[in-house]
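hey so i finaly got around to running the thing on Putative integral membrane protein from Mycobacterium intracellulare. pasting the sequence first so u can double check i didnt mess up the copy paste, my clipboard has been acting weird all day
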Amino acid sequence: MTKGLDRRLARHAPAALSAFRLVYGLLFAAYGSRSLFDWPVRSPVVVEFGSWPGWYAGLIEIVAGLLVAAGLFTRTAAFIASGEMAVAYFWMHQPMALWPVADPPGGNGGALSILFCFAFFLLVFIGGGPYSLDAARGRRLPLNRR
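ok and heres what it spat out for the 3d tokens, dont ask me to read them lol
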């Protein structure tokens, strides 16, 4: 019974990967947009232009998020995004408390940073999938360059 289910689900893995990549990329870009432009929802913290680290983090989130969502330079963008979230966790969240599963003072509020970090880390290894701009660019390469 599970072998049949595994086969049926495996057929849809490329579409599921694309949906995962698209959602995580757009969500990441939305967090950056919130930090820099106060959109799509108001940010509790005002990030001044060029301020360290907030403005640069927001810029990375917008650019890397949109690249991942489009599946363009997916592995590189995901690597940068994963690294940013690892730095955010260990620099901003982990010093507050050991556990990320609650907000301070009981926890450190870093669960979202961990989820983004490892989701993007996964994309570093699996890439954008067949429904990505990376795949479309690869199909246009001449045969002698493959």
